[in-house]
Structures are given as C-alpha cells and as structure tokens.
Structures
1.
Amino acid sequence: MKIIGVVASARKNKSSKFLTEQCLQAAKGSAEEAGQNLEVELIELAGLNVNGCIACDACKKGVLCSQEDDYQPLIAKLADPEVVGIILATPVYMGSMSSQAKAFIDRTVLFRRNGFMFKNKLGGAIAVGGSRNGGQELTIQAVHAAMMIHDMIIIGDGDHFGGAAWGNHPDGYENDTVGIATAQNLGRRMAEVASTMQIS
Ligand SMILES: Cc1cc2nc3c(=O)[nH]c(=O)nc-3n(C[C@H](O)[C@H](O)[C@H](O)COP(=O)(O)O)c2cc1C
C-alpha cells in the first residue's frame, strides 16, 4: 500500500514540503511498527506546469486529459491501485488553498468521471499559513470538500482537522512543534485507518 503526498506550494522545498515529509515519515513509521509495509511518495507541484482544468470534457471518454502539461505523468501515479491515501498540502493563500492546489484538484475530476476511482481512498490535508491563525482550518475544509466530492474517506489528525502549521513561526517552521505534531498525527492516523480497513 502507498500514500502519496502532493505539495501545492508555489515554492520548492519550503514549509509545506517540510510538513508533508513529517506527515509521510510518521505514516511510514507507524505502519512499520504495526508490521506493515507502507510506501510513501512526495510530489512537489512547484516547478511543474499544471494548468487549470479547461472543461473540454475529454476525460468523459476515458482516464485521460487533453492538456499536454506536467499533470500527464501524475495520472498514472494517482491511478495506481496500490495508492490507499492522498495527502494534499497547501499554503494558505488569501484564506484558502493555493491556485496550484486548486488546479491540481480540478484536474483530478478525470478520476471521478471514470468510475469514482478515488472512492474509499483516504484523504487528508495539511495547510501552512504565514500567520498562526491565517485560515489553515478553512483551507483544510476546502480541500476536504473536494475529497468528499471524490467519495474519499476524510482523515484528520485524531484530534482536529489535519495538519495545521505556522510557516512564519518565530523559531522557524522547523520548530513549530505544535504544527509538526498535527502533520505527524495525520500521517499516523492515515496509516492506522489504512491498516484497520486492511486496504492493500
Ligand atoms: C498570495 C499569498 C497569499 C497568502 N495569504 C495568506 C493568508 O491568507 N493567510 C496566511 O496565514 N498566510 C498567507 N500567506 C503566507 C503563506 O501561507 C506562508 O508563507 C506559507 O508558509 C507558504 O508556504 P510555503 O512555505 O510552503 O511556500 C500568503 C502568501 C501568498 C504568497
């Protein structure tokens, strides 16, 4: 089984990626403790060219997208039946998800239109804001809404909504222990639910 973490910051190798790494490492560690093999993969959208959906409806004819951009190789990764869960990490931009996150989400409509291919996969969200309370929870809810439209099973951090972190933490985002814990707990929770459901 596999969990994919998609990082939808406009910037490479910044706080959203760091939090996603924390989440995926915790998921893997939790699965290993339970004697299970869990593969994880992190995909950074920064630097890729993933356009918004153009509503051409080509995907109504099959698991395909008409736009020849960097989303194309992601289709096979996401369609892999080994994928049991998807984490979407996004910075908070203007109180909601980044345009990179929205473009990515909209392009996943092809999986819905071809038999709800994400149905029963686990979905979780991480939001990193520049402010401590800059819209992380609203952003997580927006990601969850899209996941529900896929008929995915929404996973939180076992306490609240998922990974909620502070990118401009005075000690640096690498020392936002509260935020890091939410991301790690989201990963652990996803591994736990995957194991309980015996999804393989
Ligand atoms: C266009 C834009 C809008 C932003 N809007 C918000 C916001 O509404 N709330 C907030 O807390 N931070 C906001 N920020 C700050 C980012 O969320 C913050 O810097 C975050 O850590 C960026 O993630 P990254 O380090 O992975 O790139 C905004 C940044 C940009 C570029």
2.
Amino acid sequence: MRLQGKVAIITGGNSGIGRATALLFSQEGAKVVIAARNEARGQETTAAIKRSGGEALFLVCDVRRAIDCERVAQRTVEEFSRLDILFNSAGVVYPDRIVLDTSEEEWNQTMDVNAKGVYLMCKYAIPHMIEHGSGVIVNTASVWGLVGGNGAAAYCASKGAVVLLTKAMALDHAHQNIRVNCICPGSVDTPMVRREMEALGGAEKARPIFAAKHPLNRISTPEEVAKSVLFLVSDDASFITGASLAVDGGRTAGEVVVGQ
Ligand SMILES: NC(=O)c1ccc[n+]([C@@H]2O[C@H](COP(=O)([O-])OP(=O)(O)OC[C@H]3O[C@@H](n4cnc5c(N)ncnc54)[C@H](OP(=O)(O)O)[C@@H]3O)[C@@H](O)[C@H]2O)c1
C-alpha cells in the first residue's frame, strides 16, 4: 500500500475525479477527508470507503470561503493528528461561453472555485505540512490550462492560473519538503462532462465528438486520472515538483495532420 498511514484532504471528493481518487487513496491505506458542499453525496462516498474497511470523514466546505477551508484543515488535524496530502479537485465550468456570453457572476464563480479555492485550501493546509516537516499537493488544472479552448474563456483563465500557481508554490515550498504539482486532464467521464454532453445534444451525439479530440480516440475514466494523482502524491514521484502532468490521451501532444 503506497499511502499507508497518510492523511489526505480531497476537495470535490464527493463526485467524479475527486470521488475516484478518494476511493483509490483509501485502498492504498490513506485516511481521507472529503470536502465539498453536497452532504448526501459526501456521506455516500465516505460510506463506500468505510464499507471497504477504510477511514473517511466528510466535511461541508465551500472552497470559495476562507473560513470553510481553514476549518477543514484544522478539523483534519484534530481528527487524524496530521495532514500529508491535499488534492484540490473541486471545480466548475459554464459550458459554451465566450467572453461576450460570460456574465460577471459566471466569471467570478469560475475564478473563485477553480483558482481562489486552490489558493485558500493551500493557504490553510500548508502550515500543518510545515509543522509536520513534509507534504504533497496536487491541484487540478486541465488541458485548457495548457492550451486554449473555444467556448470556455473563464474556465481557461482559471485553469491557466492553477498551472502557474502550482509552479509558484512548488518554488516557494520546496525548502520545506512540500511538493506541489498539477494534473491537466482531457475529457473525463464524470458528471461535469455528462452535463456538457447533454448541453450539446446528448451523450450519443457528443461522446464521439469528445473522443475524437484525443489521439487515443476516447475519453478517460475518472479512475485513470485518480491513478495519475496517486503517482504524484506517492514516493514514486519524490523528485517531481512544479510539474503539470497532462492526462489527456495525447490531446496536447501536438497537431495531428490528416492524411500523413
Ligand atoms: N471532467 C473533465 O473532463 C475534466 C477535464 C479537465 C479538468 N477537470 C477538472 O477536474 C475537477 C473535477 O471535475 P469532475 O469532472 O470530477 O466534475 P464533477 O463530478 O462535477 O465534480 C466537481 C466537484 O467539485 C465540487 N465543487 C464544486 N463547487 C464547489 C465549491 N464551491 N466548494 C467545494 N466543492 C465544490 C463538487 O461538489 P459539491 O457540488 O458537492 O460542492 C464536486 O465534488 C474540476 O476541477 C474540473 O475542472 C475535469
């Protein structure tokens, strides 16, 4: 077991990539704190972990609120005596929005959850890691933090911010033995993407279009992304910090020239 004895906070751990990662971390021996807003989904996930013999706690948390993030970090240490891992998975997207269609409210929501939420959770988690002498953080960016995408202006801005926030924190905290990396997924089969597919006329029509954006010609499962997060938080990645790991089936590898 690669995370035996470790304690992990996972924001957005009650759905999609965060949920798959919470289950995998638990299988690898970690005690898991799930921080998100929807209590029913949170309790369902912690129940699934406990049924498999793991330890888990759900805490209601809106990552846009400093007071919530501070409480999650504090309660984690009170409950489990330490904090080793922070995986920031919470995120939102408003599909099909160019700048002209993006309301100020949507812009603020996107930046507040996707970028400010990462800053706030790190701000309150890192002091506990410093006290303990080590820590690992994985943030969730996107392929749209590495390259632009159409119809997702605010989302791209928020994920670009996550990529560089990750690098800045990696530099700032390396001397404290804290590694900070991010993952950049392509399309992943989660409720977020299923909602996007519905908005584009339904899964049957949209799924092949989403798949075709990836040279591997499919979208990924949340479990595949969770395995990449596990790698980054494990000692197998002990010399990796400041990295943006594309988990994207080749989507950002370069241009595919038709006919060659
Ligand atoms: N799916 C993809 O194709 C894809 C691709 C690239 C990147 N990503 C990124 O991967 C991450 C996870 O997305 P997903 O696909 O797993 O989507 P998802 O299933 O919709 O999960 C999103 C999670 O974010 C949480 N969340 C949203 N707003 C929050 C808030 N204000 N405070 C706390 N938690 C909040 C949600 O929980 P509550 O609603 O209960 O709060 C939920 O757990 C996101 O950062 C997303 O941008 C996804």
3.
Amino acid sequence: MTAANSPECTIIVPCFNEAGNIFPTAEALLAVIARYHLDAEILMVDDVSGDATKSEIVALSRTDPRFRLVEKSLPRGMGAAIRAGVADARGVWAVMVNGDLSDPLEAIPEFQRLIMQEKCDLVLLNRYGKQDDHSQVKWSYRFYQFLFRYCQYLAVGAAYRDITYGYRAFRLDFVRKLSLTGVGFEISPECSVKTFLAKGRVGETYGKQTRRTIGVSKFKFRKVWKGYVEVLLRGMLHRFGLAKYF
Ligand SMILES: Nc1nc2c(ncn2[C@@H]2O[C@H](COP(=O)(O)OP(=O)(O)O)[C@@H](O)[C@H]2O)c(=O)[nH]1
Ligand SMILES: [Mg+2]
C-alpha cells in the first residue's frame, strides 16, 4: 500500500462456508496484485460460517496485513456482506470477487483502467460477449438472467448485457451514495439499476466465468426471486417519479 490506511483498491470477497476456498482465492488474488502492481487491500467478509472460514481468514491476515477479516452479524446474505465490505473499505474503488475461484481475475487491470482513467462509476463484466465465455454458466441461471434482464429493460430501461453478475468494480464514493439495501444476491442488479437511475457512468469488460470446484453454491432461485422482483418494481417506481428508491 502507498499509505498504510489508504490503498487505491479494495477487493471485497463475501465468504460463507468457503473454508476450502480461502487460501486458493487468496493466492490467486496475490498473484494478480503482484503481476499488475496493484495497490490493494483485501476484505474477506465472513457471515458466521459453520466451517473454518473465519479461522482461515484470521490466519491469512496474520501473515499478510493486506488481508482483513470483516465479521458481520446475522442475518446472513451476500448483499449484506458486500455492504459491510463497502462500509469498511479504505480504497478509492472496489472490486467484488466471489470467494469460489470462479471469476476471471485477469479482468482486474481493465476494471482499474476503466475506473481510474475512463472515470467510470461502475464496471460490469459481460459473460455473454464471446461464445465461450458463458459455456460454464448453468443454463437455468442463464434463463433466469435473460428473463430478469428483459423485464428490467421494459420496466426500468437499463440496457446492460450482464446486469446480474456480482463480479464487478465500482467507485466507492459513488456506490455509497446509492444507499444499497439488498441483503441477498439481488444486491448486484440493485447496484446496476440504481447506477443507471443515478445516471452513473458505466463501463463494460469481458471474461469467462468458470465453475467452482470446491464447496457448494448458495444461490437458490426459490430464495432469491423476491429480491429481484423488488429491484424491478422499486426501479420502475423511481423511474416514473412515483417513489424514491435511493
Ligand atoms: N458473507 C456471505 N457470503 C455469501 C453469502 N452467500 C453467498 N456468499 C458468497 O458469495 C459468493 C457467491 O456465492 P455462490 O454461492 O458462489 O453463488 P453463485 O456463484 O451464484 O452460485 C461466494 O463467495 C459465497 O461464499 C452469505 O450469506 N454471506
Ligand atoms: Mg459462485
């Protein structure tokens, strides 16, 4: 870090029952940080995991002060974890990285360029830009994503290709003004829709998401759909001046 308390970038990693992924994810992030000379801190946000997630993060933070454990209280949720990370972040910009080694981390320098040089407020990673990039994304997820994107476009009007992928980067001061409230996975479309409604500058880059090989996914459609519908409705009401969303 350039100054102990002010890195340029904060990497936020929500972690729930990811014990087997903590060290491999940390290694992958350190390799990218070293390769591109990034000035970064890494916040790993645990959510009262039932496995060794917390102790693994503590062990990491003892060996390398760039890693910090963020402990949040219940209720659990990926969105609540990201908000805890955003509140604790000391960087100028942040990148949200899934703690399961599924994200194309080589996109991080392009995230940095789009935010620091092109002055984007939010940079989305599009998994649908090239034929092979979404080959490992489950068909059921692709179907729900398509449905959500289409309905969102009609209701709110944001024409982003990959509006729901959590792996993305943003300026911290900009996102703090959006007053994000999502508790679960709906935090990602909420952030995209609010950025659109706030007329933020949005950039896009490309990359291939792969599947986790350790641990299990916590994404359950029957649990998350309500949050996505709420984003649509509240975004639409805000668009037409009927009720403020933020
Ligand atoms: N802190 C925290 N992290 C979570 C929670 N739910 C999911 N995550 C993390 O969010 C990331 C994405 O979740 P994952 O289960 O891989 O969802 P998928 O990629 O949509 O299948 C992973 O790093 C999870 O550990 C939660 O309730 N709390
Ligand atoms: Mg995942």
